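Re: the multi-chain job from yesterday

Posting the exact lines I submitted so nobody has to dig through the queue logs.
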Amino acid sequence: MQENNYALQMQDITVEFPGVLANDHVSIDCKKGEVLGLLGENGAGKTTLMNVLYGLYPPTSGKILLGGNEVHISSPSEAIENGVGMVHQHFKLVDTLSVIENVILGIPSKKQRLDLEPAKKRLLELCKEYELYVDPDEIVWRLPVGKQQWVEILKALYRDCKVLVLDEPTAVLTPAESDQLCRAIRRITADGRSVVFISHKLREVIQITDRVTVIRDGKLIGTIDTKDATQIKLAEMMVGRPVTIVRKERPVFEDKKPILVMEGVSAKDDRGIQALKNLNLIVHSGEIVGLAGVDGNGQRELAECIVGLRKLTSGSITIKDKKVNNVIADPSFVGFIPEDRQKTGLVMDFSIADNMIIKDYQNEPFAQNKILRYKVIKKHARAMIRKYNVKSPSEDVKVRNLSGGNQQKVVIARELDPEPVLDIAAHPTRGLDLGAVTNVHDILLKERNRGAAVLFISAELQEVMALSDRIIVLFGGEIMGDLNGETADQQVIGQMMLGQPLEVQK
Ligand SMILES: Nc1ncnc2c1ncn2[C@@H]1O[C@H](COP(=O)(O)OP(=O)(O)OP(=O)(O)O)[C@@H](O)[C@H]1O
Ligand SMILES: [Mg+2]
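And the result, structure tokens for all chains:
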């Protein structure tokens, strides 16, 4: 066995899917104790490359070396045996099992009796060592997404991985949680382990990585030392042309009418705990109301109440003067981009074309006399793919096989294209690359300018501030204040996000 300074070397990796060359002779390496950033636009091939390392796809060319020795990895269990850990872009936890059950799931054991106690003890040691605290006995679905992320990381550390791949770990984290993750990553690498870190947030990439590799359209563009990188430089490497960020024009919308009116709305969360408390909110036509707040303060429940997926315990909701309490929203009236595109937004094993009509399949022009008209459906999908720039060789591709960012574009296209009167967009830019983020921002502004009422939910304060006409801050299911988007102060919003109402601050 010959050890070298590299924890991981992937050389000349090629992966081809029908119609897509996802990785085209890509080489990357990561030194021991190093954090390597892996960057690229949506669909560039980042996840695919890491899936090869994890034994999910066999490459058609290339080889993998771990610690200088060539390995052949043909399944995740072989990857784990070889010291590779992976936290997938979309989590793979079993929601109905407890944290500790998830952590030990799949580890072979010679014992006949399953004793969870030693495993719990070891897990708690890891929690302490990396300051990622979770309760071993909590059921996973009850945990907020941030904590689920800790479980995924702890699970890999429990298996003593030498190379840990984090595929967009911060897409679902709050700023405070992202800082916590950065600290944990430093501890992980201080142990001599290596981390491959995929993210679209360039600021973070610069903060946390030692070197950055950029891929574009499946090809290696280059690797640079992070100390020589700037956000602009990385963005240019990613998109292949100079990038500029321009603040959008925002014409005054004259004819404002109340579209969404919520009065005294209360509701419970999945655990039966009060999630919304006597909430009053109005969104007018031609305005974007940004809903800021740390995730888990009622944002999800609020959106679900509006679209009729969650029961109100009191209060009333009207959309364009029509009472809609506990009524599933009419898709031509309300566009809803849910926060979890895979569980709520898409049927993963349906094609793009089928996902595009899923709310409308019984209606003209997609069906006639209850018979689906596939020519029309496919033509519609092709038009949407072009309009929303979905990267896919055809409309027949299963949504499961699209990159994360392109899945999001499918949801957006379906929800916003019938031109609803009310758009609810929950974290619509999560996991999108720079170009796609700008695209979504443009789409939401366009919606506003045509007169739609837009409720924009995001945990990214920067984008809430950049986009909103009004900013509402939610904390513990209550509205802490209602601010003018143009003049709102970041500090004040930050305080409100921590539960200080505006009056108290003044
Ligand atoms: N199982 C699959 N079958 C067919 N095509 C696939 C499959 N997996 C990925 N692809 C395609 O390969 C390309 C690269 O996808 P990949 O998921 O690696 O991108 P990514 O860089 O991770 O993007 P994102 O930032 O959006 O997550 C995309 O065009 C995608 O549609
Ligand atoms: Mg990906």
